[in-house]
Amino acid sequence: QTAKTADYTAASGDEYQQLIPMNKATAIAFKIPTDATYNFAVGTVITVLNIGAGTCTISAVTSGTTTVLSAGATAASPTVGQYKSAACIKTAANAWYVVGAIA
């Protein structure tokens, strides 16, 4: 895929062994939509790679509906530094875990 240079929300087609490169000199966001917006199948993995100097934050578009959990300092909004990646794994309806090189 082409590197995203602005905030990006996961969409149809991102789930099929796609790498989502994020590339911005300042902070950037990768958002996971609610199932009502796009219902990714349970077991879907979306890989985010941050190649930009800005920190990439991974979070839900609607945090009260979609749950994002990680071992990051802020469990619901893990961050990925430059040249690091994370995998977003859907485990249930509106429930995602983020694993990888997160802060």
How would you describe the overall organization of this protein?
There is one protein chain. This protein is an all-beta fold and 103 residues long. Helices cover 0% and strands 42% of the residues. The chain is built from no helices and 9 strands. A 5-stranded mixed β-sheet has the order 2-4-8-9-6, with no helix packed on it. The chain has a 4-stranded mixed β-sheet with strand order 1-3-5-7, with no helix packed on it. A hairpin with a 2-residue loop joins strand 8 and strand 9. The chain is globular, with a radius of gyration of 12 Å. The protein starts with 7 loop residues before the first strand and ends with a strand.
Tally of strands: 9
- Spatial order of strands in the largest sheet: 2-4-8-9-6
Radius of gyration: 12 Å
Structural class: mainly beta
Mean pLDDT: 95
Sketch the major β-sheet: 5 strands, mixed
Number of helices: 0
% residues in beta strands: 35-45%
Segments where pLDDT lies below 50 for 5+ residues?
none
- What is the helix fraction of residues, given as a range? under 10%
* Gross morphology: globular
Return the string of H and E elements: EEEEEEEEE
State the end-to-end distance: 24 Å
